[in-house]
User: Which sequence fits this backbone?
């Protein structure tokens, strides 16, 4: 029967046989190289204090600016063209302004003179109605190169489209479709 040693007697005595057994067990082993000590420095750089509210405020402003609908921003722009006949409901105008209607054809008036643009636009609207198209896009440009007189072709498109009975409504396009440099035009169905 072995006697249990009390911890107060000091560390247990190791015999010579136990030491030999331990060495024989570890005889064919190799030490493991510590990767941790190579990657991490023995000390860490002290972090500097940062104003967390300012950082959050900046992040919120950035997030808000990215989430703002550019079409809504342009809606407040005075350069927007908008027209509809009395039989066109606000719901239809909303759909038209959102680009919900499928654009079936388009006309680009860039680089044309005022007279050329008038003739080409009249022909385009007439042919579109004859072909049974209901929604087309007319790209008139923003008139940035027109100087102090303003956007000539844009103003002319605005006047002409209002005159023709075949045109039920028009509104400046969404930003991705030309913004205030183009209009979606809703046409009467051909008889």
Assistant:
């Amino acid at each position: 029967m072995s006697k249990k040693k009390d911890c107060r007697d000091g560390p247990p005595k190791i015999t010579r046989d136990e030491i030999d057994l331990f060495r024989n067990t570890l005889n064919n082993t190799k030490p493991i190289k510590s990767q941790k000590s190579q990657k991490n420095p023995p000390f860490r750089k002290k972090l500097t204090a940062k104003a967390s509210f300012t950082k959050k405020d900046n992040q919120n402003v950035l997030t808000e600016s990215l989430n703002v609908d550019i079409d809504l921003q342009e809606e407040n722009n005075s350069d927007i063209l908008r027209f509809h006949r009395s039989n066109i409901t606000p719901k239809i105008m909303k759909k038209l302004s959102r680009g919900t209607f499928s654009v079936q054809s388009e006309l680009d008036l860039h680089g044309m003179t005022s007279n050329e643009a008038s003739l080409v636009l009249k022909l385009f609207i007439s042919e579109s109605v004859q072909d049974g198209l209901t929604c087309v896009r007319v790209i008139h440009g923003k008139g940035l190169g027109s100087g102090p007189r303003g956007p000539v072709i844009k103003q002319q498109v605005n006047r002409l489209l209002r005159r023709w009975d075949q045109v039920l409504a028009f509104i400046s396009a969404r930003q991705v479709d030309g913004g205030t440099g183009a209009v979606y035009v809703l046409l009467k169905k051909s008889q």
